[in-house]
Amino acid sequence: MLDLRGVTKHYRTRRGVVRAVESVSFAVRPKTTMALVGESGCGKTTIAKMILQLEKPTGGSISFEGRDIAALDATALKAYRRQVMAVFQDPYASLNPRLRVGTIIAEPILAHANPGRAAVERRVAEVLDVVGMPAGAARLYPHEFSGGQRQRIAIARALALRPRMMVLDEPVSALDVSIRAQVLNLLADIQQEFGLTYLIIAHDLALVEHFSDDVAVIYLGRVAEAGPTGEVFATPRHPYTQALLAAVPQPDPDHVLSETAAAGEIASALDPPAGCRFHPRCPLVVDRCRSEVPELRGAPHAASCHLVEV
Amino acid sequence: MVLAVENLQMHLHLKRGVLRAVDGISLAVGEGETLGLVGESGSGKTLTGLSLLRLLPKGSGRIVAGSIKLDGQELTTMSESAMARDIRGRRIAMIMQDPMTSLNPVFSIGDQVRNPLRNHDIARGAALRSAVVDVLTRVRIPSPSQRLGDYPHQFSGGQRQRIVAAMAIGCTPRLLVADEPTTALDVTIQVQIISLLRQIQSDTGAGIILITHDLGVAASLCRRIAVMYAGQIIETGPVRRIYRMPSHPYTQALLAAIPRLGDKRTRLQAIAGQPPSLIDPPSGCRFAARCPARMDKCAEAPPMVTLADGHSAACWKLA
Amino acid sequence: MRADGWLPEWARGLPWLPILVLLAVGVCALAGETIMPFDPNELDLGAAFVPPPWQEGGKTAYLLGADNLGRDILSRIMAGSRVSVIVAFYAILFSGSIGALIGMVAGYFGGPVDAVLMRLIEIQQSVPSIALALILAAALEPGLWTVVVVIVLTYWAWYARIIRGEIMALKGRDYIAFARVAGVSTPVIFLRHLLPNIFNTLVVLATLQVGQVILFEASLSFLGLGIQQPDISWGLMLSDARQYITNAWWAITMPGLAIMLTCLSANVFGDWLRDRLDPQLRQL
User: Fold this and answer.
1) How close is the nearest chain A Cα to the Cα of B188, in Å?
2) Is the pLDDT confidence value at C281 over 60?
3) pLDDT tens, C233-246?
């Protein structure tokens, strides 16, 4: 459904060129969940922004259902926006505090056509019901709701126009642990019910394993590893993926966290290391890694590392 | 016992009423022991930590009952100046969540690390400078003597948190309160800070209270866990017992709600509802409204039932 | 709890004195004729230089004294309030609207649009307002509307800069990002999301500007660039009374006090309003 090929994004700043995203390629199959995982500064949010057309790629192409989204004319762009919606991380910042919930949810509907007040109200009530909120919520303001409830409202808002795909940017990171499960279960339910495709950005690997079908691990703007989640997590090929998995604390006192797997700091996208961007931190580094950029090889489980036999 | 807290109650006097943020907490931390204070937002864990240092919101926060004893010395009755001079930063230190706001952006790190050492008279003059370099080395900041003049923004998030740790351990405190020290950090950096905290503990023998909502982080560092809900501790015990045999329904629900690596479940177990308001909390068990095992008796406040060695939980089901 | 416990929530802690002063000014402006003791333009040379009642030779009829032509100062002050209110109203309305619009466009679109508008703002703020006033007074006829035009041209940039800053902070908000993702058109984003969220700032800015505007008008009229005889303005009263300051101190002091009191009240009220609506604007 969504196909990224060689997508690149460079920002020109006063301090130089920030190579936020470099030659990223992956595909999202319809009605599945694809997760983009990575640490801060890896570019996953930038990738999401490009998919949502909030930014334009500097290079490469993004295709939605076979059509290049950069080449869409105004009408087609509007149609694209109907089909691809977003849910953001911070439930306290993603709803306009001055608008009532009903208006907030109706916003996407009204952006495309106005089917009349009654029809809009009906749809708002419908979609509030889907996310498990009472219809009366439409009259209230966001500040009257808790974080978890606001996130449900944000989901309702994204669902209003029956999109084909939703980009979920850390949808539960800002929520309490016990509320996360509620919202994740809801997202899973509506995916089933409405045949949605999800692109989820997350840093919580356990969540990603639980929730997604495919995963792409991003490090400093490049795809380190990608493939079906179960496989990637069971047999990670890229040293960075291995390091990530080894560094995740488990709610198990006997689990040993490995610190040496990824020593040092994440470099800056302003001046990324030459060759493989992970080489300064990689425990398995060889000379070739310092000069030559590894290609993403293998399908469906791919990794970009010189030392991986595919 | 480095720290012994008995029935601590701290209330916030707000315009809309009195919020019973910390409502009867009792805990203890021994030498070289890490106690995990685990709970979600609004459970009162951060305010408990701040209460130990008496760093309460001016005007509204008040310790209304209970005792806090550091090495046998009562802190609740101490004068403000004695707290500032002897306790804060000296015998109890704190590391907070966001290193960006813990460090002052306009002062060099050398200045900031030096301050507690100088204010508490740990060292003077030339010895001061080498003490600063020494503590920065201990927290594994590379080339510390060259970087004394650098400013916080010149360091990464993980390094800043190390600098904050350096400020905290410079005076060799007896107790270190770490409030969500890794939440703002990336996973690969988090593991480095966890290891740093472990090392600090084994080097100095200080007690550590780790305040966190992350059950994974708590499991990797703590020897004992106290689970907080709605201003109260509802279960406490050795880490293995809490994770393997959680006895309070809330603890059980919490552990069931988090996804784990390698876990094949298709659905997470959610906890319905919300925590109660702390301005007018229910008189009985505060978790009763959301508890799947609720009974009539839960309208009455449950006693803390001792289950085994150091493991107890406040639930009628266990009584 | 407190003495005003009987008042509804929104009315507690109101700065009563400033509000009363401002209301008094407003009432005078609207319905001054009905309450004035004298006709402000009526000459009575017999009553020239009558001091206020508490001084020797004063008459209670002339509560604040009379000027060199025997005109009652109190009535003239009341009449002058109309000018102050009209000028303040229109000047703030136009400079606020124009400034806010320019600030919103510059802040939201950024890039070259912002660069051009920022240069305009900077140029505007480098031009001394008195010089501008002189030029315009020479080009147009001095009078009330000239004053309004000068103020609008002087102050729009101040609004624009502050609103631009607010918009730049707002445009990164997730709900704006969502609106763009959902296909909401830019004008609708401006009206639905940006405008309501800068409204508080605008109200506070407007209130704080009242004092500045009144002073500005008074200065211009004082210099002869603003209101002209026989119209009455507080600034003009100051100018007229300058020469008599030794023998009729009240003729210059009373209008001066009127200006000061009104500005002070407007500023205190503006500060209170700002604290009430959005304490984060404290740096204004």
Assistant:
1) 6
2) no
3) 888 888 888 888 88
Q: Which residues of A touch C185 (CB under 8 A)?
A: 111
Give the residue among A308, A283, A290, A267 at the shortest CA–CA distance from A20: A267
Chains C and B touch (3+ CB pairs under 8 A): no
A123 touches chain C (CB under 8 A): no
Contacts of A108 in chain C (CB under 8 A): 182-184
pLDDT tens track for C16-44: 888 898 888 888 888 877 778 888 787 87
User: What subunits touch chain C, counting only 3 or more CB pairs under 8 A?
Assistant: A
Which chain B residues are closer than 8 Å to A251 by Cβ? 215-216, 218-219, 243, 255, 258, 260
Beta bridge mates, B17? B14
Task: Give the per-residue SS3 of chain C.
Answer: CCHHHHCCHHHCCCCHHHHHHHHHHHHHHHHHHHHCCCCCCCCCHHHCCCCCCCCCCCCCCCCCCECCCCCEHHHHHHHHHHHHHHHHHHHHHHHHHHHHHHHHHHHHHCHHHHHHHHHHHHHHHHCCHHHHHHHHHHHCCCCHHHHHHHHHHHHHHHHHHHHHHHHHHHCCCHHHHHHHHCCCCHHHHHHHHHHHHHHHHHHHHHHHHHHHHHHHHHHHHHCCCCCCCCCCCHHHHHHHHHHHCCCCHHHHHHHHHHHHHHHHHHHHHHHHHHHHHCHHHHHC
Strand partners, B5: B27, B68
Query: How far apart are alpha carbons A288 and A303 in whole angstroms?
Result: 16
Amino acid C2: pLDDT: 55
Walk across the sheet containing A214-219 and list its strands.
A84-87, A165-169, A197-202, A33-37, A214-219, A222-228, A302-303
One-letter amino acid of B225: I
For A98, which of C178, C183, C197 is closest by C-beta distance? C197
Which DSSP helix (H) or strand (E) runs through B204? Answer: helix B187-204
Query: pLDDT category, C1, cuts 50, 70, 90?
Result: very low
Task: Please report the ipTM that was assigned to this predicted complex.
Answer: 0.87
Q: What is the pTM of this model?
A: 0.83
Considering only the beta carbons, identify the residue of B192, B261, B268 that sits closest to A259: B192
Question: For A172-226, how does the pLDDT look when each residue is reduced to its tens digit (9 = 90+)?
Answer: 988 888 888 889 999 999 999 999 999 999 888 888 998 899 999 998 889 999 9
Closest residue in A to C177 (Cα–Cα): A54
Yes or no, beta carbons of C192 and A96 under 8 Å apart: yes
Convert the pLDDT of each residue in C199-223 to its tens digit: 888 888 888 888 888 888 888 888 7
pLDDT 10s digits, C127-184: 887 788 778 777 877 778 888 888 898 889 989 999 999 999 988 889 999 999 988 8
* Token representation of residue B273: 């509802």
The Cα angle at residue A285 between residues A283 and A288, in degrees rounded to 5: 175
Q: How far is B267 from chain A (nearest CA, A)?
A: 7
Find, in chain B, the residue whose alpha carbon is nearest to that of A132.
Answer: B272
Residue A272 has what DSSP assignment?
A: P
Q: Which of C174, C192, C197 sits opposite A88 (nearest CB)?
A: C174
